[in-house]
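User: For my dataset I need records formatted as: sequence, then structure tokens, nothing else. Please produce one.
Assistant:
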Amino acid sequence: MERAMSGAVIQAGDELALLRRRLAEKASELHQAHERLRQLYAQADVERETARRLQRAFRAPSLPGAGGLRLAVYHRNSGCLGGDLYDAFRMDESRFGLYLADAMGHGVAASLLGLFVRAQLETKETANGSYRVLAPDEVLDRLNRALLERELPDTPFLSMAYGLFDARDGTFQLARAGQPAPLHIRRDGEVEVWSGSGALLGVCAGKFACREKHLGIGDKLILYSDGLVPANAEGQPQLTTLFAAARQHRALAIQPLVEHLADDLRDQSCTQEDVTILGLERTV
């Protein structure tokens, strides 16, 4: 009987030792898996930071001045990487192009789509030593075709407003693809919505309307992303607060005007969306 008990004890000890070894092996495997996850998360953080720096580098840090035109911008990302992008640039000695676009969503995918837009954006056409400045509707049409030709697996919903200002006569041409309607703030204080739009880019083939306004000296134009003004139940932007703020601050120069609009609509704007306001003012 003692031998049987001794054998049982030895067997139990062996089983316990085996269980301990297995537990030690599982603990080691878990530790290795945890370390691998830590490395992957660290790598992802590095990649996100690299993408953020690239996005920030490609985004205009300050908008250049132009003859007869003063520009201003307010921008707020909802996260590390945003989907809003904007730029402004001289076309020649008298014309000036600018745009505001919104790649739907956030993160690396949205930022990569923004880089694609910058790479594919065609604003001039050159031939035989001369050039032709493309109208805003042509710019959107070419960009839309470039997106469709890629046949991306996930539809890259992209909204955009592209404008062209001519300092010779103060005309401003604008084409929109899904972007909210800009505000035209006249020098006399009248605030108007610039109507007309087009389908989102990258969804289907289509044409985009080009509309033209004459900006008088002191007139201002406000372009903004949809994060600034939430939509109502019918999907229409709620413009009451924006209109009131635009009327209240209409006498300010364009940069403080843009900043006041952002402050006044801070509680109303969507915290889950990027917010960008791009303003311009004709000065002479």
